Amino acid sequence: MSSRLTREDVAKVAALARLRLSDEELDLFTEQLSKILGHADDMAALDLTGVAATAHPFGLINIVRPDVVTPSLNRDAFLSQAPDVQDFRFAVPRIVGEAP
Amino acid sequence: MSLPDGWEMVIGLEVHTELQTKTKLFCGCANAFGADANSQVCPVCLGLPGSLPVLNEQAVELAMAIGFALHCSVAPSTFHRKNYFYPDMPKDYQISQYDLPINSNGYLDLPDGSRVTIERAHLEEDTGKSTHLGGSGRIHGADRSLVDYNRSGVPLVEIVSGPDMRSAAQARAYAAELRGILIATGASDGRLEEGSMRFDANVSVRRPGAPLGTRCEIKNLNSLRSLQRAIDYEAARHVAILEDGGKIRQETRHWSEDLGETSTMRTKEEADDYRYFLEPDLVELSPSIEWQDRVRAALPPMPAERRATLLTIVSEPTSAQRDAVGVIVDLQLDRFVLDAVAQGADAALAIARTSNEIAAGIDSLANLSLDSFVTTLQLEASGSLSATQAKTVLAEVLATGGDPVAIAAARGFEQLASDTLSDLVASLVEAHPDEWHRFREGDEKLAQFFIGQVMKATKGQANGKAVIAELNARR
Amino acid sequence: MTSAHDIAARVAAGSSATTEVETSLAAISQRNAELNVFLYVDEEGARAAAHQVDERIARGEKLPLAGVPVALKDNLCTEGIPTTCSSKILEGWRPPYTATVVERLLAAGAIPMGKTNLDEFAMGSSTENSAFGPTLNPLDPRRVPGGSSGGSAAAIAAGMTPISLGSDTGGSIRQPAALCGVVGIKPTYGLVSRYGVIAFASSLDQVGPFAANVADAALTLEVIAGHDRMDSTSLPETSPSLVAHLKDGVAGRRVGYVKELVDGSDPDVAAAVAAAVEVLRAQGATIVEMSIPELQLGLSAYYLIAPAEASSNLARYDGVRFGLRVDGDDVAGMNEATRTAGFGAEVKRRIMLGTYALSAGYFDAYYGQALKVRTLTINAFQKAYADVDFLIGATTPSVAFPFGSKTKDPMAMYLNDVFTIPSNLAGDPAVSVPFGRGEANLPIGVQLLGPGRSEAGLLAAAQVLEDAERAR
Ligand SMILES: [Mg+2]
Ligand SMILES: [Zn+2]
């Protein structure tokens, strides 16, 4: 797999991550990310068929809690920290497009 | 509604059901509908920095119960993050099950005998809820939205069927049967109007025997009626396009109940890249055989089994009685009917009165004790009350909670004196010699004729069985 | 500076905790303006806490950290106290809840003095990525203190508090400990609760202590470790006994002297490790020279796994519920404007790297492959631990480096973590202990690595090195 990222790749990723990049940033990040991924090419080139993926260091299983209500937060404690509140709700500008 | 000749619908449903747990899926906040905005939230379900999810044991058990009721196998499963930005999703990712769901490979048999496969039934968390200000109060045209996270993190099970249904009516029957099962397991309250169950329908059409056509997904249908209407509309839209020589574009569509039509929500090209990956804050869920057995053993009988049980109390059920039994089980009244029959009520009468009169007064069922119900049915069976009188008494007991005997007396529903009935029958026999002759010769149908005459003369006050007894005594 | 052990002993004996708080506040006010160690000093809270500790002692409570001032990395949530992660996106945010580790410190009688500087969202190795300016190394203010827990390491080196907490995702406790000449422990993954610890990379993050000596670090770890119901990845057991084992020594232990944990380091650093090895040998350990080539793959795997998890963990900074909001035409525009203004360049770089590694078409080649390399790392460690009790190597390739020397090239900075990253991938514990001096008489950190739950043995070995260092 070639690690060479294009400007378009970086622009697409920035959009997915909800980040806006200037033209200069786009150039800089394209170069830097390509370099970092280039470092990963040795790793990406390894044949690791049959090697299991590890996403967790230790194999704990079935960690659950009983279905018992615990106190919720006092509304003031978090609404006072919100950028915009109306009627005890978090206010946001208009939403374009429905949830997936 | 059906499609023009030579077309076939193919429907698969994704059903989201909220679980009736006391707390949310990953935190101890109360899972209850209708509380003050943002009054049931904590760092976890608000997605505050540093918060971590811990899985609710009861949600796992209810998910397994659903799985077992749908004949699924329960397997070791994991949680993934589905990444997308949306204001009602506080972490901007949803914790859901992806390649390894807790339940897979089951089926659901419908009352008409058809079978719908269940691909999977997995656990995931619900989102918060937005209200839109400005415009018409809908998302489009609004200038501002307000978010309440009380619903954020409420446990959901998403049940995904195979593309096995062939008509909107069948899809509706599947949704209804599934609803009955979810209620029976205790997993859901089945309250569609509160959003406890939401349906997404995948609809395509094809020539019978042809490969599957391009499908469209209709999102967020929240009643059985909209489900059926939306599917019919969508399938007809596909046929119209195809017959016109056009092509179906794969997309997600929105159903407008007011307009009675679907419209484009998102095309396939606009589909997000969700970057699913294993949720590092949770561990594998691998219910032991003992845990599974405990959940399975606690499962109550499902609607199909309960309908069958109810039908065993009548010797040769008519199709009307089969329908009645469906209604009774839907209304969770099967135990009531069985108990009434066990206390001596007539089975056919119990089924008929429950599926009609009691069903109509279901909201005030608390007013009707089992004893009152049995008493009323016995009065009717013995001829002390006519059918019409019995219905009236039942309605009044349901409305007021009074005693049926007292109500009958107060209403003047005296037993039609047997000598009065005897005199009446005698005069009718005289007035209709031909019919009487044929009855005597063995034509039992004529009994109905005489019952009808008696009812006419008594304005429905007589009891049919008593009339037959009187006729037979004269034969 | 008085040790945490001594402070706790005299406060338990009736000396007022207020004295300890005032001593700490004086040390902070003397150098904080210069060094930028604390982003927030909670004078009032500390004084109030000191009174409470005095009352609890008077009531007869046994408090292992009675009256001990502690500095908290500013990625630990503290109710009502600003918690910023050194990011503009969280500037001014006062969490409505407190991290489990902080609750445990409070329960043990420790006194939080305030919040320390870090690389934004713990992404960095020099604390130069803080939105609120870098922290200077107290030993040489022209040089970095290391990172990301640079503030918490510097607090110890500057004598501001006897103990502090940091977090270590790829070396963020051990590396600054080495560069500041203090002790730092990265515990076994799951030994210390992550509840209330603002996530960088969830499967790698662990909170751990800094202290001026091994015993204080061990005591602090005992206080914060142990199962927490609020963290699903928390190990089930209670806190291990560590202080009681500090004098266990290394006689009879087998120690792997690992080529890949020294290769590429400066000669003075390599020499310090060699000297440490000789100390352990002299104390009765058997030294086994070994090579674990898989460890070199760790860096690449880490720089895909950590950003991938971070890209998702940092999605919630969207301007809706807390922190910064920059207006936009619609909600997506507001999200984008907020994140663009609120995150620094390194955070954006890692978010984009991680988003890319997880995205359709690249997942298997990058993220998926990195998870397999993680397995190789774990297997390689396991194989080594079948032969030896623990491993020794350098913590960092060099002593503290000057400001700006690695900021141009992200990869040069990342290479600073090459020795520390493998323990995070494996979830294993590791300790950095000051041993020897290098360029400009700056301290060198020697790293001891062991299998999961081997903290007691690692700290006993660290104690051997500390005793030898003091005797020199
Ligand atoms: Mg879903
Ligand atoms: Zn909650």
Describe the structure.
The mean pLDDT of chain A is 92. Chain A is 38% helix and 9% strand. Chain A has 100 residues and is mostly helical. In chain A, β2 (85-86) and β3 (89-93) form a beta hairpin. Chain A has a domain at 7-44: Histone, subunit A. Chain A is built from three helices and three strands, in the order ααβαββ. In chain A, α1 crosses α2. Chain A has a two-stranded antiparallel sheet with strand order 2-3. Chain B has 475 residues and is α+β, with helices and mostly antiparallel strands. Chain B has three domains: 8-297, no CATH class; 303-410; 418-473, Orthogonal Bundle (Arc Repressor Mutant, subunit A). Chain B is built from 15 helices and 15 strands. In chain B, α7 (334-342) crosses α9. Chain B starts with 7 loop residues before the first strand and ends with a helix. The mean pLDDT of chain B is 92. Chain C has 472 residues and is an alpha/beta fold. Chain C has a domain at 4-242: Alpha-Beta Complex (Amidase signature (AS) enzymes), CATH 3.90.1300.10. Chain C is 40% helix and 13% strand. In chain C, α8 (267-282) links the parallel β7 and β8 (286-290). In chain C, α9 (298-313) crosses α12. Chain C is globular. Classes of the chains: A mainly alpha (100), B alpha+beta (475), C alpha/beta (472). The site of magnesium ion has 3 residues of chain B, from loops.
Strand order of the largest sheet of chain C: 1-3-2-4-6-5-10-11-9-7-8
| Corresponding CATH architecture of the domain at 4-242 in chain C | Alpha-Beta Complex
Briefly note the CATH topology name of the domain at 7-44 in chain A: Histone, subunit A
- Characterize the biggest β-sheet of chain C: 11 strands, mixed
Helix content of chain C: 25-40%
Uncertain runs of chain A: none
Q: Give the CATH topology of the domain at 4-242 in chain C.
A: Amidase signature (AS) enzymes
Oligomer category: heterotrimer
Percent range for β-strand residues of chain C:
5-15%
Mean pLDDT across all residues of chain A, rounded? 92
Highest-level CATH class of the domain at 7-44 in chain A = Mainly Alpha
